[in-house]
Structures are given as structure tokens and as C-alpha cells.
Design goal:
The complex is a heterodimer of chains A (299) and B (251).
Chain A: H1 3-36, H2 39-45, H3 50-59, H4 68-80, H5 85-94, H6 100-110, H7 116-138, H8 143-146, H9 168-200, H10 203-207, H11 214-227, H12 234-238, H13 247-259, H14 262-271, H15 274-298
Helix pairs in contact in A: 1-4, 1-9, 3-5, 3-7, 4-5, 4-14, 5-7, 6-7, 7-13, 7-15, 9-14, 11-13, 11-15, 13-15
Chain B: H1 20-42, H2 54-71, H3 86-101, H4 109-115, H5 142-152, E1 160-168, H6 171-174, E2 179-185, E3 194-201, E4 213-225, E5 228-240
Helix pairs in contact in B: 1-2, 1-3
The chains are: A mainly alpha (299), B alpha+beta (251).
């Protein structure tokens, strides 16, 4: 076997094995919402106005601590139940960072190195960008114009299967299995792309371009997409670059990666129409780049 | 006495046709769970992830078994599942294909040809300012040495070393040294791996090949590598050893 192919398989398997438990948690939560939460309850409990919905969505991660693999199916289920689109969008983008596990891991990694302010910047910037993207992209459009087409029961493959009668646990597991077959394919394709790019691109070569104001931010954003690592541990990976790069470039890595990477971007297409996915990626990239460059200049 | 009359045979219930989609889904979910459990049993999960997360993967495998079990009643269901996940089946079958046909191997020197040693090693990480817990330098791993040498390299010249790693004939060999002793550091999974290593000066001829595992004993010294002075292990013993159960260093 070609050594490069072997490395691609090993890295792909690493990404897949590491992300699978989080995806499973996501599809279980999403299925529980789908089966046991009524649209009336969602609409009664959650704010309807765009700003309130986006703010609520960006903080929901504190209740549903999921990483990017689990956030997409959960957001999709919430929107299928009638949650406002800004809420779903903001939750999908913010919850991989604005959740207790990631806040704790960021604090453990960085509080003693770059201070608590760096931890606050990561959380605050992720929150603000998620809210901004959600408000801009959902402005003036009906939910149906933004969400991916789906079957009568909410599955985007056009199927209309039921999950039969039976105990609640059985129905939950059956639905979660369906969600896994639907979302798992994005994890596999994203993992393969990330592994292939990692073999063909050398991070060391990327880091030779670290000088300047704009390029380091861009490089770290690109690295976040290529590495596609889970937000629960990315702070420890970013720690490796502390001596080599300025804090704003590290922030760009830690804010952009959990929102946009290869596997999560592919998963977005299960929840939103393609043009909206393009909008999510482009607008998030612009805002993170802008914030990163502004902070570089301010330093 | 009543005459014996043959009893009419009980009516045979016709077998319901097997729901092939349910069978495929059950097999796929069950096989994925089995693959994870089998890899954990063989100890090769550590080739892919930090062992800290093995428990999480095992929980994932149990959930997959639950998902598979929930599909068993549908095997003879008169109303078969109608979802069409053909692409999902093919793509989720890929990890099984890789697991079955590509023997598990940890990352090694192949990756260093393009990525090199010390992208993050020996310079740049604030964690390296922290000294390892033990004061006995012979118990330090390559990561401990990276921590220590970053902060106070020159002061450690002469310290005794005993480290385990794999052989890489890279920059050290090109510069006239013997080889590098290297090891990957994996924080989460191999996607975030980075390799650290130290040149080993070894004055005896060796037939050690790249990726063979060695225990190197010696002292820290300074050598000139590609024109610059650099810390290295001046070895007095290099012993071939089997690959450790966890081939990576997992902080």
C-alpha cells in the first residue's frame, strides 16, 4: 500500500472514531426532540422575534453541550419543530464553543498562558458572530426558503418512513439510526477530505507564511478547516502554536474551526439549502477574518 | 377404546420475506460496533486516538449495538422501512472496508518526509517552560525533554537520558549524526498529531531501519546540525525494543 494512502486511512480513521460518539450523542438528542417534543411546546418556550431567537440559540449550547457533529442534527430537529431559523442557525454555529465542556477545556488550556481574557474573547466572539450570521441570513426570508427540502416526516431523503409503534426507547433508537445513516455520510466524506488535505499540505509550510497582519489569520482559519478537529479539544491543539503566532490568529483558529470545517459544512447541507450554506461559510469567514485582522492591528 | 386417527398437521405459518434493507442496516450498525470493540480489544484504538477517549468510543460502540438491536424487529416487518439511505450505507461501509482490508498501523516516519520533526517540537510551546514532575531525568519522555529543553536547554547539557521512540533517518543522518529518535504527540486524535524528536549521536554502525523502536540511553550534549549548534543525545546504548502499547505520547 502506498505510504500516503496508509496515512490518509489512519488519519481518516482517527477523525471518524473520535467524532462518532459525539455524532451519536447528537442524533440521540435530535431524535428525542423529534419524537417527544411537540411543535406547540417549542413555539411556546422559545422566543419568536429574530434577535431574541438568535440570542437564545447562541446560548442553548449551555443546555445541550454538543460539538459541531451533534449541533447540526439537533438544530435541524429544533427547526423542524417550529423553532425560528435564527435560533437554529445561531445554535448550530455557537454551541460547539458556547457550551460548558468547551469553555472548561479552553480555560484549562489558555487561562494560565494567555489569561482569562483570551478565554472570554473566544466565547464572546463565537457568540457575536453566530448571532450576526443568523440575523443576516434569516432576514426577510421565510423558513421554507432557507431549509433543505425534506419528506413529510422531516427527512431530507424524501422518504416517508415511520418508526412504528412500540416502546419509546425502541422508537428513539430507530429514529437515531436513520439520522446516523443520514448524517454519518457527511462525517465520512468530511473526514476523508480532511485526511487527504493533511497529507498533501504541510502545516510547517503553512506556518512559514505566518508574518504580517492578514496572512496569519487566514492561515489559521485554513488550518482549522483542514484539521477538522473536535471543538472539545481544539484548545489544546491551538496551544502548540502559542509561541509561533499572535493571539488573534489563534482566536481565528478557535472561533472559525468549530463553526466551519469540512465535515460540519457538509452536514449543513442536510439542514439548509445550498445557497444558505454558501452564505453561512462566506459570512462567517468574513466576520472571523475581520475580527482577527482588527485585533492584530490593535495589538 | 377410541380408534386412533391421524391428527391433522398444524398449519405452517408462511415465513415473512426478509426485509433486506433492515438486514443491511442491522449488519452495518452491528459491524461498526464490532469493529470499534475489536480494535479496543486488540489495543489498536490507541493508533488513532488519545487513550483518554477510549471509554467514550466504547460507549459509542454500545450505542451502535443498541441502534442495531432496535432494527432487528424490522427484519420480518410486513411494513418494511422505506427510508432510502443508499449513499449513507456505502459511506458508512467505508470505515468497515478500511478496518477489514488495511491493517492498523500507527503514524511513523513516512509522514515525517513531508511534515518533518519539530513543527511544534523544541520551541514555541509555553507548556515546555514547565519542568517535568520527576527530577530523575532518566524517567523523562521525549515530551518531558521538549518541555525542559525549551525553557533551559543549555543548563541540561550533561543530564542523563533514557527515552523511547522510533528511528527516523532525517536531518540528523544528513548532518552526519546517526538518526533522530522521534515520537508523535496526539492530543485528541491523529489528525492533530505532531512529531517531536531529538538527534542521537551514536558512534557505532547500526542496521536500525526507519520506524524500528529503540530505547536510547546517554547524556544531553550539543552538536552542530546543518550549521547550527543543537542539543542532542550523545548515546552510550541504543537497544531495539518492541513497539509500545501506545505508540504516541498523549498529554
Amino acid at each position: 500500500m502506498n505510504p500516503s494512502d496508509r496515512i490518509v486511512v489512519t488519519i481518516f480513521f482517527g477523525i471518524f472514531v473520535e467524532a462518532l460518539p459525539f455524532l451519536l450523542a447528537g442524533v440521540l438528542v435530535s431524535s428525542a426532540i423529534h419524537l417527544f417534543v411537540t411543535p406547540e411546546r417549542v413555539q411556546r418556550l422559545l422566543p419568536r422575534r429574530p434577535l431574541g431567537a438568535a440570542l437564545a440559540g447562541a446560548t442553548l449550547g449551555l443546555v445541550f453541550p454538543v460539538c459541531e457533529c451533534g449541533a447540526v442534527p439537533t438544530a435541524r430537529s429544533l427547526m423542524q419543530k417550529g423553532a425560528p431559523v435564527p435560533l437554529g442557525l445561531a445554535f448550530m454555529l455557537a454551541s460547539p464553543v458556547v457550551n460548558p465542556i468547551v469553555i472548561a477545556s479552553t480555560a484549562v488550556a489558555f487561562a494560565g498562558v494567555l489569561g482569562w481574557s483570551f478565554v472570554a474573547w473566544r466565547i464572546g466572539l463565537s457568540f457575536a458572530i453566530a448571532v450576526a450570521v443568523a440575523l443576516v441570513l434569516s432576514r426577510g426570508s421565510a423558513a421554507q426558503a432557507l431549509l433543505a427540502r425534506r419528506g413529510d416526516d422531516g427527512h431530507d431523503d424524501g422518504s416517508n418512513h415511520d418508526h412504528g409503534e412500540g416502546p419509546a426507547l425502541l422508537r428513539l433508537l430507530r429514529h437515531a439510526g436513520d439520522e446516523l445513516f443520514e448524517m454519518g455520510r457527511y462525517l465520512v466524506v468530511g473526514g476523508l477530505l480532511a485526511a487527504g488535505l493533511q497529507v498533501s499540505l504541510s502545516p510547517a509550510a503553512l506556518l512559514t507564511l505566518r508574518h504580517g497582519i492578514v496572512v496569519p489569520v487566514l492561515i489559521m482559519m485554513a488550518l482549522a478547516v483542514v484539521l477538522s478537529i473536535c471543538s472539545t479539544v481544539d484548545a489544546f491543539v491551538a496551544l502548540w502554536f502559542v509561541g509561533s503566532l499572535a493571539p488573534p490568529a489563534l482566536l481565528a483558529f478557535l472561533v472559525f474551526g468549530p463553526m466551519i470545517d469540512l465535515k460540519s459544512t457538509l452536514m449543513f447541507t442536510a439542514a439548509f439549502r445550498r445557497r444558505i450554506v454558501v452564505g453561512i461559510v462566506a459570512l462567517t469567514a468574513l466576520l472571523v477574518l475581520g475580527a482577527g485582522v482588527a485585533l492584530q492591528i490593535r495589538m | 377404546m377410541l380408534p386412533l386417527t391421524p391428527r391433522a398437521p398444524a398449519p405452517v405459518r408462511p415465513l415473512r420475506p426478509l426485509n433486506r434493507i433492515a438486514l443491511l442496516e442491522t449488519a452495518l450498525l452491528g459491524a461498526l460496533a464490532a469493529l470499534l470493540l475489536f480494535d479496543a480489544e486488540r489495543g489498536v484504538l490507541s493508533y488513532y486516538i488519545n487513550p483518554r477517549y477510549t471509554g467514550l468510543v466504547l460507549v459509542g460502540a454500545v450505542v451502535l449495538l443498541g441502534l442495531a438491536a432496535a432494527r432487528v424487529p424490522a427484519l420480518f416487518d410486513a411494513h418494511p422501512l422505506r427510508a432510502n439511505h443508499t449513499l449513507g450505507y456505502v459511506l458508512l461501509g467505508l470505515p468497515l472496508f478500511f478496518g477489514a482490508f488495511f491493517p492498523a498501523q500507527p503514524l511513523g516516519s513516512d509522514r515525517l518526509a513531508s511534515h518533518g520533526i519539530g513543527l511544534v517540537g523544541l520551541g514555541g510551546n509555553p507548556r515546555w517552560n514547565r519542568l517535568p514532575v520527576s527530577t530523575d531525568t532518566r524517567t523523562w519522555t521525549l515530551l518531558d525533554w521538549s518541555n525542559a529543553l525549551y525553557g533551559q536547554g543549555a543548563r541540561l547539557v550533561g543530564a542523563r537520558v533514557q527515552v523511547v521512540g522510533f528511528v527516523f533517518h532525517g536531518r540528523a543522518a544528513r548532518a552526519g549524526g546517526a538518526f533522530d529518535v522521534a515520537r508523535y504527540v496526539v492530543t485528541c486524535c491523529v489528525a492533530d498529531s505532531a512529531c517531536i524528536g531529538l538527534p542521537v549521536v551514536w558512534h557505532y554502525r547500526t542496521t536500525l531501519r526507519d520506524d524500528s523502536w529503540v530505547s536510547v540511553t546517554g547524556r544531553i550534549g550539543q552538536v552542530r546540525v546543518t550549521g547550527t549548534r543543537q542539543l542532542a543525545i550523545i548515546a552510550n546504548a541504543v537497544t531495539a525494543i518492541p513497539q509500545p502499547a501506545n505508540p504516541y505520547l498523549s498529554p
